[in-house]
Amino acid sequence: MRRTAFALLAALAFAGPVLAQEADLGDAKVTHDRDIIATTEWLSFYVDSARVRVIQVGRSDSAFRAGHIPGAHFLPLSAVATTVNGVPNEFPAPVQMAAAFRALGVGDEGRIVIYGDDAGLLAARAWVALDLLGHGYHAAILDGGLVKWRAEGRPLETAVRPVSPQTLFTTSWRGDRVVSAGWVRAHLGDASVQLVDARNGDLFNGIEPPCPAGQPACAQTPAARRGHIPGAANIWWMNQLVSAQNPVLRPMHYLHEELWVPSGTDRPAARTVVTYCQSGMQASFDYFVARYIGYRDVRLYDGSMAEWTALPAAQHPVQAGTR
User: Which residue, among 63, 177, 194, has the nearest Cα to 117 in the 3D structure?
Assistant: First the structure.
């Protein structure tokens, strides 16, 4: 019943974009899932609807208090990304994440629209958290986020509205969608698994250290451990946006045919897509786009290179240069 109601609401939300791109069906291997993107135009009509819960994600609430989409509620990034066993930006325990969403009034019904303080990473992280909790099907990222909303001259508010915590938020934890270093190691060379590195090309190729010079973490990754996991393809998360100044997703055809197909994700043997980056954040964006394109089995290596390069090199190899 929940899925039926959501499908009707989603049909209203995306009738325009879907009809406009009806010919863009892509490869038969995938069925594009456009319902997980919301447009600013659609949200402007539903912003005060009791069936739409708007969430802004940020590292602090300072930007939120300076001006946010009317009716939005604030979710701290720490609710979906924390340090676990020394590895940064890991997902907290499912019960903690569920409690954070429940406290914002997120429940089993209605639609969730997410945006962040940045070009899309924070929103993607929150969307993946909801997907892992079994609620990705009725959550969407606001295409272009607050940047596009502001550029269009749409209203903002600074008042923080009261929120009634939701008691009915049923979770179904999809822990299989987050893989470990052991899982990745066991599938190195597996033709049915395609690894996708979401970092920029210089990091992927081992040209740059994994963080700006001068930070202690840079010195902890020797040059021999810079690069990517063998067999991985490189899809920098930013290449999927028009630009940092206009952070809307590129057209579906470009995303699928120009970026993801060349990575090997549409190979006949490929069944599972695994995204990773330095510490799980950029990988969350690639995970989201992979789901948007319609890949059926998408997983996230949350520990990413921060964990991989700290493990024994003989069992956890790193490759520099292009594959």
Answer: 63
Helix or strand holding residue 291 (H, E): helix 281-293
Residue with tokens 């974009």: 17
24-33, 147-156, 246-255: the lowest-pLDDT one: 24-33
pLDDT tens digits for range 223-257: 889 999 999 999 999 999 999 999 999 999 999 99
Number of domains in the chain: 2
Residue 105, domain CATH: 3.40.250.10
Pair 204, 215 in one domain: yes
Quickly list DSSP for 61-74: SHHHHH-B-TT-EE
Is 98 inside any structural domain? Answer: yes
Instruction: Specify the 3-state DSSP secondary structure of 168.
Output: coil
Closest CA to 221 of 307, 281, 301: 307
Q: Tokens for 289?
A: 């786009």
Q: Which pair of structure tokens corresponds to residue 213?
A: 């010079």
Instruction: Record the pTM.
Output: 0.90
Q: Which of 173, 196, 222 is the last residue of a domain?
A: 173
Distance between CA atoms of residues 245 and 254, nearest Å: 19
Contact between residue 54 and residue 73 where contact means Cβ atoms under 8 Å apart: yes
